[in-house]
Amino acid sequence: MQPNKIDISVVIPLYNEYESLPELASWIDRVCADNALSYEMIMVDDGSTDESWSVIEQLKTIYGEKLHAIRFMRNYGKSAALYCGFEAAEGEVVFTMDADLQDSPDEIPQMRRMIIDEGYDLVSGWKRKRYDPASKRLPSKFFNWTARVVSGIKLHDFNCGLKCYRNKVVKAIEVYGEMHRYIPILAKNAGFARIGEMEVHHRARKYGVSKFGIERMIKGYLDLITVTFMSRFGRSPMYFFGSLGTIMFLIGGGTTCWVIGSKIYKQLNNMPLRGVTEQPLFYLAILAIILGVQLFLAGFLGELINRSSSERNKYLIETKL
Predict the structure, then answer these.
(1) What is d(CA 113, CA 196) in angstroms, rounded to the nearest whole number?
(2) Pairing mode, if any, of strands 163-166 and 93-96?
(3) How close are the terminal C-alpha atoms of the chain, in Å?
(4) Which ranges of the chain would DSSP assign to H, the alpha helix?
């Protein structure tokens, strides 16, 4: 055992949540004290425009080295806040928790036991009963269903803010855009397949207002496409673009040959015919050929860029003998 080893790190991204921060910090401190856990809180202020940073500075005088804080110059989003929090985390188990008091710190001991004793790499919370409005619950259900189908990971609530990880998991993944929704997928792609789920309590919002908007759903689905593509074809884009381009080229070329061959056959047999350029099918075939060539070139350029990337041969090695 390392002499000053930290049991848990709690990463708390926040945006305009000054009212809830003192209560949240006190709650985390109480739970950790009751369970004899050494801890650090990492609050990441994502460009708040209220008194959040002033409150954090006051909390720093109370909790000292147990509280670390990062302040962004402007609002970058939850993924950026988590990324910086993960970089700073030193605990053996790393928790993420929203700052709005809708996640309960009382869940920390049991989730940590699932990591330490049951061998999970990641444990995601599942808010079976939610106190959000229907305008947020229904899109969330559809989103989670889509993510389950695409990823094959059987989680009910991908977007639950309360999650915990082994430290090496958060150090191995890169979170950006709206990718915080897909951390379980990113972890699985990085080789951490032991992903569990625990039902957690969802509490009604006590202070402030929700930051949820329809634009987050749109960005979320675009990022789902991105993470799915990158996990399957990120290292070999030619497999996707080249295959699709080849199919398009063969369809277009075959159709063109058929149109021209059909005209020649009708000419030889004195049958009524139309000019090749008078047939819409001919132009569709030419379009397919052009698209096929462009897709193939896109795959080729992707390979050239990928081969010059410093990350191309970077692999996660679990152990060596």
Answers:
(1) 12
(2) antiparallel
(3) 21
(4) 21-34, 52-63, 78-88, 108-116, 134-151, 167-172, 183-189, 214-233, 237-268, 280-307
Structural tokens at position 193: 């397949």
Residues in the chain: 321
Alpha-carbon span 259 to 230, nearest angstrom: 39
Q: How far apart are CA 308 and CA 312, in angstroms?
A: 8
Q: For residue range 114-157, list pLDDT tens digits in order.
A: 999 999 999 999 887 766 666 666 777 777 788 788 778 888 88
Spatial CA neighbour of 68 closest among 44, 84, 47: 44
Torsion from C-alpha of 180, 183, 189, 195, nearest 10 degrees: -170
Higher pLDDT, 175 or 219: 175
- The answer to whether residues 76 and 175 touch, using CB atoms and an 8 Å cutoff, is no
Looking at the DSSP assignment, which residues form a beta bridge with residue 45?
14, 71
The CATH number corresponding to 8-233 among 3.50.50.60, 3.30.70.100, 3.90.550.10, 2.130.10.10 equals 3.90.550.10
Give the tokens for residue 241: 């673009």
Token look-up 């003192």 returns 22
Structure-block tokens of residue 263? 């005209």
Q: 11: burial class by Cβ within 10 Å (0-12, 13-18, 19+)?
A: buried
Residue 76, helix vs strand vs coil:
coil
